[in-house]
Amino acid sequence: MDFNKIVERRNTDCLKFDAAVRRGYPADILPLWVADMDFPTAPPVLEALHQRTNHGVFGYTEADPDRFFSVLQGWFLAQHQWEIQKEWLLQTPGVVFALAMAVKAYTQPGDAVLIQQPVYYPFTEVILDNGRRRVSNDLVLRGGRYEIDFADLEAKIVANHVKLFLLCSPHNPVGRVWTKEELERIAEICRKHHVIVVADEIHEDFVWSGHPHIPFASLGEEAANYSVTCTSPSKTFNLAGLQVSNIFIPSFELRRKLKHEINAAGYSQLNTLGLTACEAAYRDGLPWLEELKAYLRQNIEYTRTFLRQNLPQVRLIEPEGTYLLWLDFRNLGLSNAALEELIIKKAVLWLDSGAIFGAAGKGFQRINVACPRAVLAEALQRIAKAI
Length: 387
Known about the structure:
Layout: H1 15-18, E1 30-31, H2 43-55, H3 65-80, E2 89-92, H4 95-106, E3 112-115, H5 122-128, E4 133-136, E5 140-142, E6 145-147, H6 150-160, E7 164-168, H7 180-192, E8 196-200, H8 221-224, E9 227-231, H9 234-237, E10 245-248, H10 252-264, H11 272-284, H12 286-310, E11 315-317, E12 324-328, H13 336-346, E13 349-350, E14 352-353, E15 364-368, H14 373-386
Parallel strand pairs: 1-13, 3-4, 3-7, 7-8, 8-9
Antiparallel strand pairs: 2-10, 5-6, 9-10, 11-12, 12-15, 14-15
Helix pairs in contact: 2-11, 4-5, 4-10, 6-7, 12-14
């Protein structure tokens, strides 16, 4: 695959490029913000989609449950050493939708929901927009690596009578891939205090050397029975616009409650092309994914080297997973507004401001390196010139 090829995405109603002006950004801004990729999806997926669109009829669709599940089961067993069961599966149009339904299913208005900031900002939105209270067990940056303050985690759960924990694993934006020991400590605390864990594992297929992804529900039967695992091929195969997610819930009661909320929202069959793409991706997309990951590793190394040689003031938080890099600009001594002006007005870049991930993200920027290297190089050069 030629991942260096630049595919023109403008004038395709692309959120990443075409929404700039209406969101108040300059027309010529270079966007490396939203978490999709600038690469065409895997050829087997495109072929399956071509065959499906050539049929020409796009009525209500449900994939054959045995065939579809067999593909899912094979993927998660081979890639994550996790054996899923057919009855665990619910499907939604996206992971964020599933998170919102989980908040409604497992808590009441006014209840506290725990997150770990700086974290993917829709976590906060689905909590507050549904009338719940957000409580954050902020991650702690020590020696260039984020860690969990477990004493604070348990204290926050007890003090706020937390019933639900939205776990980001691998973590977006700080790039941590939680170890088995860390996950087991989370599991023990949540078991002790009867907290349901909803694990957003959408970035699970992008983990780097020495940092295997461990599904929370794979820790054992006890952990599985108070967990909801949210997965999707959307990040792995660049399929976000096709709206398909696979949610695994071993507990019958938790599954019943979430299904009730999904039904109450009026949602039933998934996107026809999303189902086609998901099945083809998990069945035949692995060779493409391996090439992609090799390219992304090179982009991460390019960024690491560029910062070391040209921007020593900007620190890369070493990523253990995801293609979203967390850059620390605090050595510049800028206010959040001044940093935004530097990035948007002077560098003419559209990144994600660290502040939107919570107060703990101030002074940081998130950059998406899932793009051709020439685009990444241009972005980094713009930052260097602006500084």
